[in-house]
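Case study: alanine transaminase.
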Amino acid sequence: MSLSLMLTLCQRSTRGFVLRPGSVNIRLAATAAQQRHHCPAPESPINQQQNRTFLTMACVQQQQRCVSIDNINPAIKTMEYAVRGPLVIRAGVIEKELEQVLGLVSYPPLFNDPSIPADAKKRARDILDGCKGGSVGSYSDSAGIEVIRRHAAEYIKRRDGGIPSDWQNIILSAGASGGIKVLMALLRCPIDGKKPGVMIPIPQYPLYSATIAEFDMEQIGYYLDEANKWGLDIAELERSLTEARKTSAPRILVVINPGNPTGQVLSRSNIEDIIKFAQRERLVMFADEVYQDNVYEAGSKFHSFKKVMMEMGEPYSKMELCSFMSCSKGYMGECGIRGGYTEIVNLCPDVRTMLLKCISAQLCPTTAGQAVLDCVVNPPQKGEPSYEQFEKEKAAVLESLRERAELVARTFNSIEGFSCNPVQGAMYAFPQIRLPPKALEAAKKDGKPADTFYAFQLLEETGICIVPGSGFGQRPGTYHFRTTILPQPEKLKEMLGLFKSFHEKFLQKYK
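Here is what the predicted structure looks like once written out:
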């Protein structure tokens, strides 16, 4: 059986209930799975130290090895990635199957299938025509398949009301994270003997803290304003920057909009203030906009940083900006296929040449991921056979997410000891939890942060998986967790009921 035929058969498998990493996993027999796979209990700090010592000794004993725990990049040993940590590993994930266009490019005989719409076939043909040899099994250009880069530029132009986008400034990558990492690596250069610094929101998405640690750069956290729907306060940016300049050379300002894990959507006036700050302080802006389709709260609207920056005119329209989009998020959620793009704006041509040289060393992003991204940036248009069905399905997904966003925030605000901001956008809530002193003492004795202690007990007793706020960063003395709004409504209601019952018992135990 050919690889492409096997892919096709996989694509026609039955669709199951989807849960994402770092999400809420509702009673999927997590503890039973743990027993089946003989998962050990989390190690104590003493056991962890013993294991590290044993591993180091093993490396010494095997002298034929050139690489040991003692001579690898030390920054990697300090790196953490909360949404893929031990709590989530124990919960498990179910992936989605592939869709029609990917099936066509993977197995061209499907072009003869009359049940597949003509516009889906056209999109697949355009992609194959852009591939060397007409096959997704061949390498593409390092920056991605040209026709898909052109489609991405057209998508950005439509999104931004006609503001031009140059396809040659579009770089395709393995998810948005691939683009973020290569751009961050480009700016990994000491300035006046100081480490380059990256300003990131707190709470933040752990990709940033992990990459900063891996690249041995300086993490500069600025706190989002929880009392103001997780808004971004310019005075806080200034405080953070002033403090950071004592020991580092800040170069990048990262803004996540809509927010992950906090679910906020920035207002246009707030974005204008952020742009003015970045221009005044000579910072390169990284606009993480992967949830741009996911806006739920009435009165909230997504504004791209590029659009606002260009409409503000000079000097702002001449600023350097890197914006990121992905097919893993939004209404599509093809996390495992790994497709994304970066648009670089106003980058020096010589620097752009160095960037392209850098990505050429990575050969090319997966062509399957590029094909799926094309479905995102080049969706069915009015008058095409698939348009009405596409619009109907997209609207239904987003409306259902809006209802679930309201349900999650409302329910958590009804539970004693919780407070939760509205989920204005993205796919997550980040409620604050006030834990009793006895619970804090118990967590300390167990060698865990208090929110991690709570999350492990929740997982063990209910099968529900949340990601502790300590993995994202939070103000000292506060405790949060990230939970998703992705489960279907009935499952979500069941989960929230279980959560409430668990919390009531937890309070009785530790009050």
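For the exam, be able to explain this: Residues 94-377 form a domain with the Aspartate Aminotransferase; domain 2 fold (CATH 3.40.640.10).
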